């Protein structure tokens, strides 16, 4: 992990996420990239205006850059991290973030779960959907009550064994850096299906995962998200990892409003999401 992007709207919740981004950068000796997104001017100035369209954008960019530095300064007094500041002007927050992520070839996005306003939330609503669906790297969502103290117990929501094995092995170096255990949970909705598939599932995933501090479990329940929340609590997890795939994963949970439910139940547990684009990324 070489580059970590932290997008901010300068809210208190964003500051919580910044503490995680700094802690991760210190652990992995990674560059911290602080990002602010500004609005594109909706109307070009008239010919009588003293400033050109590009001049307005330049001044807005300089203002946001100064604001970024002021926002970050209190958090960076005791660290010698490599830090860079990026400002993007875009019509949507998510597209601005993705623009910076793609340009910098970042390895991780770390953002808060609530924003400063309804229109510019970082990880709720349409912005979240777009990030978790299209980001070319994992997205780490930090709840407002979370406190960075490393990671000891990571839960992975298992739903697609070949992809599960790949993602768990991708998460393994992250877990190893903190000496964390990875626990995978697969929820069968009906007892007969679990009886028929449990042994093959456990054998396949355990043979494919190379990380030694790993275990896999199965449960039977018609309510997958509630069972997952219960499992997170049972394992005292401090990180939940999910895979977003078409019509399933986080997108399915969003349609049911379940990500908020996760945050309500487990208010201090960060959530890391992978999608197909993140899996295809090579460094």
TrEMBL record:
CDD domains: USP-like. It comes from the Bacteria. It comes from Membranihabitans marinus. This is Universal stress protein. Belongs to the universal stress protein A family. Residues 1-143 form the UspA domain.
């Amino acid at each position: 992990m070489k580059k970590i992007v932290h997008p901010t709207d300068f809210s208190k919740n964003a500051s919580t996420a910044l503490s995680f981004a700094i802690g991760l950068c210190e652990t992995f000796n990674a560059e911290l990239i602080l990002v602010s997104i500004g609005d594109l001017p909706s109307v070009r100035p008239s010919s009588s205006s003293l400033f050109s369209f590009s001049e307005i954008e330049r001044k807005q960019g300089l203002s946001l850059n100064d604001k970024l530095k002021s926002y970050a300064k209190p958090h960076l007094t005791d660290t010698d991290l490599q830090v860079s500041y990026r400002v993007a002007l875009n019509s949507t927050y998510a597209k601005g973030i993705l623009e910076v992520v793609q340009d910098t070839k970042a390895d991780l996005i770390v953002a808060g779960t609530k924003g400063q306003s309804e229109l510019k939330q970082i990880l709720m609503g349409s912005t979240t959907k777009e990030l978790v669906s299209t980001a070319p790297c994992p997205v780490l969502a930090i709840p407002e009550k979370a406190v960075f103290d490393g990671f000891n117990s990571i839960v992975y929501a298992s739903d697609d064994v070949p992809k599960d094995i790949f993602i768990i092995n991708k998460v393994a170096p992250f877990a190893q850096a903190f000496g964390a255990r990875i626990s995978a949970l697969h929820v069968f909705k009906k007892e007969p299906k679990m009886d028929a598939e449990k042994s093959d599932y456990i054998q396949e995933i355990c043979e494919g995962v190379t990380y030694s501090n790993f275990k896999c479990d199965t449960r039977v329940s018609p309510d997958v998200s509630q069972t997952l929340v219960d499992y997170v609590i049972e394992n005292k997890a401090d990180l939940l990892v999910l895979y977003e795939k078409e019509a399933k994963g986080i997108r399915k949970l969003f349609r049911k409003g379940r990500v908020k439910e996760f945050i309500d139940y487990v208010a201090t547990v960060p959530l890391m999401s992978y999608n197909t684009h993140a899996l295809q990324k090579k460094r």
